[in-house]
Design goal:
single chain; mainly alpha; 3 domains; two-stranded antiparallel ribbon; 11 strands
């Protein structure tokens, strides 16, 4: 544990280091030298020196050596454009040590300058903060020096003139991970054949992007794997691309034999989803409430955010009016685990709920899959071993105008199966497609 007493400045006076030596230091440096060589006795008579006290003593020695030099130049790496130009490198800098106290403090300082953690130097005096901010000897990381410098600044100065590190750093991460080199303008829905190959992330709104940038910055400062944010972004961008979900069907429907089939998350995730939708943070969260209600509804949550509901819950709360009271992200988010849909999804077939025989496309006769008359008339083909249906479609000419999207309010699962390529704006994703997507998904 790092402990250090409040600094009390004094005039320049001899400081007794031991019984045989006396040194004289200038003004505020004297106390730091004294504190760095002071000891605390244990019951056994052994002595220890506070890590921070020792670092401050070394910084005081270096400050004494450069006395009379231009100390303002020492602030160049931690202020203004010089600092933000290399912000991503500063945020991943760690001390060259295995000491857990120093590693924790460096991470805390990075979180503080990014707005997501407490100040590791909040109890230090201005003179001690001055030593840390101006020390170029390598005892402190750039973000530790920045944290000390920010602590010395009047609050109104930081609010008025300093860039917001959270948004700047987060936006750089967002652009790099979602767009590559530069951020494109917001693309407009609906999904059509003309934009089917377009990057889905381009359909994220300006508010979406600002929030996602802050999520990346927060996750990085917390030491979380950024793939958790990537997964949430994938769900949100898909929601935007398909006209806020209006072009997508639900996960539940009927299988080839006409039986009712539903897909849902495991019971533990069901409880979390209900907690999000009924929790107090929902009213103030920056995450689109319509998106949350869509992605957590029983008809969509199984495939919309597979395995990501616990992280979603943390983001909903963190970016709400309750954010200041949230605990740090736990170690469970430190390493992203590859999604296996079998681990998160429950499939239920209801043998007592079935389409009328006239609506069934295929069935088993003497253990062999066969097409019904309806299936044959609709042009379906059938894998007799697996029962998998497919429907070949003839090539069509590229449309010169967008085909209007049909109304989705009364469309059924069978309507989705009958859909042809000249209806691009209502691309229905049904369970068979989704299982194939999840099996092939590689984050």
């Amino acid at each position: 544990m790092i402990t250090i007493a409040h600094y009390i400045s004094s005039s320049s006076r001899p400081v007794v280091v031991d019984a045989n030596s006396v040194v004289t230091l200038p003004a505020f440096l004297a106390d730091e030298r004294e504190r760095g060589t002071s000891t605390s006795a244990s019951n056994s008579g052994t002595t220890t020196v506070s890590i921070l006290s020792r670092q401050l003593s070394e910084a005081a020695t270096r400050a004494e050596t450069r006395a009379g030099g231009k100390s303002a130049d020492l602030l160049d790496p931690i202020t203004g454009d010089n600092y933000f130009a290399s912000k991503s490198q500063h945020d991943i800098e760690i001390p060259t040590t295995q000491n857990p106290e120093l590693l924790v403090r460096a991470r805390q300082a990075t979180g503080f300058v990014n707005g997501s953690d407490s100040n590791p130097f909040k109890n230090l005096s201005r003179d001690q903060l001055h030593l840390i901010a101006h020390d170029e000897g390598g005892s402190f990381t750039i973000n530790e020096r920045r944290a000390a410098w920010e602590t010395m600044q009047p609050a109104e100065l930081l609010d008025d003139s300093s860039p917001k590190p959270l948004s700047i750093n987060g936006r750089d991460i967002m652009i790099s991970r979602l767009f590559g080199n530069s951020e494109p303008p917001v693309a407009l829905a609906p999904a059509t054949f003309h934009n089917i190959t377009q990057n889905r992330n381009e359909f994220l709104s300006s508010d979406d992007r600002a929030l996602i940038a802050d999520m990346y910055a927060y996750a990085q400062a917390e030491g979380a794997d950024l793939h958790y944010v990537d997964q949430l972004v994938m769900s949100l961008s898909t929601f935007r691309y398909y006209s806020d979900g209006r072009q997508l069907s639900g996960n539940n429907g009927y299988n080839a034999e006409g039986y009712r089939v539903t897909y849902d998350v495991k019971p533990a995730d069901t409880v979390i989803a209900a907690g999000i939708l009924n929790g107090s943070a929902l009213a103030s969260t920056r995450i689109d409430q319509d998106f949350l209600r869509y992605i957590l509804s029983s008809d969509h949550r199984a495939f919309s955010n597979v395995g990501g509901i616990p992280f979603l819950e943390r983001m909903v709360k963190k970016f709400s009016d309750e954010g200041a009271n949230q605990p740090p992200l736990g170690s469970e988010f430190a390493t992203y685990k590859k999604v296996r849909y079998e681990d998160h999804i429950v499939q239920t077939t209801y043998k007592h709920i079935r389409l009328p025989p006239s609506k069934v496309l295929a069935g088993k006769v003497d253990g062999v899959w066969t097409l019904t008359e309806l299936g044959k008339s609709e042009g379906y083909t059938l894998d007799k071993l697996t029962g998998r249906l497919s429907k070949p479609t003839a090539p069509t000419e590229a449309p010169s105008l967008l085909t209007p999207a049909p109304s989705t309010s009364k469309r059924t699962f069978l309507d989705a199966l009958r859909e042809t390529p000249d209806q691009p704006a209502t691309r229905w994703i049904w369970p068979g497609h989704l299982f194939k997507l999840m099996k092939n998904y590689k984050p």
